[in-house]
Amino acid sequence: MAKASGFHVRHDLQPVFTYELLMLLNASHDGQTEEMLQESAQLQGYTLRQRKDYGKLFNSLEDLGVIVKQHKTIMLTPIGQIIAEVGLFQRHLLPEIIHFLYYTLFETDKNARFSWSYRTVCNHLWMTAPATLNRDRLVNIVVQNATSEFDETSISFSTQSVMGILYWIESLHPNCIDASGRLFTRRLYCPIEIFTLALQHIFQRYRGEGMSVLLIPEIRQEVCQICLIVPEAFQEMLEQAETSFDHIQIRRERGERLVVTNLDWNFLKE
Fold it and tell me: Fold for domain 192-269?
């Protein structure tokens, strides 16, 4: 049985480092060593040159399922390859996708407690928006909830962990954190790609043996929380997803029912 991760969200993994690493890894599908990546980063003049080693970056990306380590060779996973290709042409989507992975991973891997921490912070901010960003308060909320939910007394989660979360929330576009970095507000909309990933996630989670998922208010809210958008945006974005992607279908009989005919991520490359 896999060991549960800690609650800490590594603050080493920042959007610019992630983008640069994915671009370097995408250049060779045979995999590269850390030394090869460091040499390429130097040649490209990347910000990665600031780091002496990439170990913590690798660990975070492996935890998220973006890369795999085989001995000393680092390779993109199939999902990682899609993310890298999307990031190459639509760089603004990279933080959105990493945010989505951080937020949803705990649903499929209960050992990924860092994902639980990420989601707990996001949900608190969404529920209390507009909310002043008080890092010490966010630490207390995570520690108290973790102590209760996991029945553990020693929870390693600090303001550095909060920083690891806010790096990604701050990088979303449209923004949900103001220019001062002190106020969180729900977004009026989000990229249709992240909304569609959220629909796919919800469909997988709730469909059971059925072929469709009834979009009850609780499920609609869950999508909005994943995307950090206002509830009023849901209906328009649902219709946009339906018209943008063939694998998203809405059956309008006794309410609106979601049907997803393909759960892979290849639509992101369309």
Answer: Arc Repressor Mutant, subunit A (1.10.10)
